Amino acid sequence: MPPYDTDFLERWQHPQVRDLAWLLSAPDLLSLAWPGRPTLQSLGLGSRQALHGYLDRQAEAPAMLEAMTGEPGASRLGHYHERLWQYLLQTAPGTRLRVHNLAVTCGRRTRGELDLVYQQRLGDTTPVHLELAIKFYLGLPSGPGRPNAPTRWIGTNGVDSLALKQAHLERHQFPLAHSPDARDALATALGPSWQGRLQQRLAMPGVLFYPWEDPMPAPVQAHSDHYRGLWLHWAHWPAFAARLDDATRGSWLGKPHWLAPPARRHLLGLDELAACLAEHFAHSGAPRQLALYRPGKGWQRVFVVEDDWPRQIPLGPSG
């Protein structure tokens, strides 16, 4: 399934179902030592018929999905992403969700938690610890490290970075699952049938936004098929928009719905979108993520940021 497959997404109009469809097709951002997101085959959705049928059923009766994910806009992006995965692993034909947000404690101190533990319904039923993250990073053409260093990829708030997230996963989240405290928690949660074996996976979709008209390489260990977008300063928007086809339409995306683009019938023309951006940057200035639809070319993600962005750049991981 190609990135931003418009025909695939446009089949469903319900926003949470569209986000679920996006999640099922989105590649991971990174290729690390651990296997990536559960495959469609392992979810029991390996054929187009099975995948479409599953999503059609969610669209026909979305009450359970809505209840689990909450009201649109009421959740933080990371929490919303977690709940989508909880729902998916609980309802997909090939998997069974065993536990989510499993606290790992040492005495009265909480050391962390395991995001999800699930099992296959058929074949190898060894429990799988699935660590979750969803990230949208902007690349800096100049900054800390080499051009392909993960320290060059930062969040819009200037606090988070790809390097910090990767270090946290490698040094804390995945090793935590093998600690005695975690194994005690797993034994309690999974019951006497658990034989002590545990697989691990990482689901980390998102988008890496490359600077407009300032080429830079992908970060080290980026997944070859990761979703790509562009970012530019507000002052450069007129020049950027002038190069777009007149038929281009778009919308800005509000958290937590940064996953699937909105249905095409909800998009604005470029003039109306530019007016909304002008009003926004005249008063607020917070970075805005856009989804632009170009007839014949599909979707493009764009982040528009203040002209003085970034105001701060996070330090790389210590040690």
Automatic annotation (TrEMBL):
Top-level taxon of origin: Bacteria
Pfam families hit by this protein: DUF1853
Protein known as: DUF1853 domain-containing protein
Lineage: Bacteria, Pseudomonadati, Pseudomonadota, Gammaproteobacteria, Oceanospirillales
